[in-house]
Give the backbone structure.
Amino acid sequence: MNLTSFVQEGSNKDKVQQIFGKGVRMIYQDALTSLVSDGELLDKLINMDQIPEEITSDFLKSLKSPITQPTKFEKPEPVAPFRVIKEYISWDPVNPQSFLNFFISRYKYLSQLLWRRPQLKNTISIGQLSRAKDRRDITIIGMVRDIRNLNDGRRILTVEDLSGSTDVFIPSNLPSKGEIVPDEVIGIKGQAGRNIFFANQVVFPDVPMVTWPKAQRSHALFISDTHIGSKKFLEGVWDNFVSWIKEHKEVKYIFIAGDLVDGIGMYKNQDKGLDIDTIEGQMEAFAKYIGQVRNDIKIFAASGNHDPNRDSEPQPVFPEEISKPLKKIKNLEMHSNPTWIEVEGITVLMYHGTSLDSIIDAIEPIRNEGYKKPYLGQIHLLKKRHLSPVFGRNKIFPDKQDFMVIDKVPHVFHTGHVHKLSIHSYRGIKLISSGTFQDTTDFQEKLGHSPSPGKFVLMNLSDGSSSPIDFSRVQ
Ligand SMILES: [Fe+2]
């Protein structure tokens, strides 16, 4: 629905416009529906000193019934409430048109976000640039098609929108120049020249500040990369984990960000490192191990690149024939990769993290440290509002809609894949990278990775406080 026409239909058009004047970048459609008919709520927003950049219906609900007892908590709910917010379900057959539709949907969503940014005034389409020659302080919003490095750190980008393409000159002193990657959508401020645009600022879509809705909640454990079937699977670490979880009744949820099993034929000579050499056997074994976990805990799990699923992302829920052994585990829910799940009002974005490889490689400033500090890559994915911006390095399935755009801003962003523990925070979003139940492999050593076997993250969902927990030692 066109936002402008929608607002014009409502009786509170002026008030909605005032909200946009306060720096709001986006109002989700369901939130807008309730806003246009609620003058009181609009007044509340207008009178707030600080207003979020994205207005969601959950935020509006919290305004209507604010939590007034930040120190005296209410009794926890007896039944743990959760819901799936966004899940990848199915896909269409690929044809040449799929790629076009995929990129157009990415461009449309991200350019709309950028369009609303207060600092990106005077935005014109690339097709209009020829009539804007020598105009300063104008903005274009485009998808990066190509990046060419010149001497002295200068760069030429080729960017395109739905009206055309242009070269963009990036001077060597532009702070964000090393952060630009192919296929992402960015805003560029600068001056139009003859057949080239001179950039003086690059703006990423980025996430708004997120506030943690404090309330009495349970604890969640974030784990990943169990790699059942590998000779390097650390059975003792798993036993410590199972024993620990039996004693810690405050933990109501476990999130597993993929690579449940080691898979078959993942890389050269992987078979020499396998304890279980069939995928069916590995899945049976995973079901056996996960079945040892306290059965009143809700377990949310997604696929990773080692699992028997489609090898391009997004990955749907496991195919029926593969996941039969998992059906016996009643407290286990399989989800797509990525998936957005809300537990007790907290949104968790769980993504295996395969694209961390390409983002660490593509972004110069994090190339050396990215595998030691996975949160660096996570931050860039959030800034780009996309879970896998670089097309082609890790496999992406070209759907009609680009599912990998981060259109729902989470409270928690959980990844695995690089097997390295890190806990961080970015604009109020808790960033969690889980360790692994697999000992370091020769392959990882060759790549220069430094995994964290046995190290995972315990989070108090009441306030988002997290602590590392090391199951390689008895707790
Ligand atoms: Fe893994």
Summary: The first strand starts at residue 26 and ends at 27. Residues 7 and 14 are 9 Å apart (CA to CA). The chain has three domains: 3-66, 117-203, 219-470.
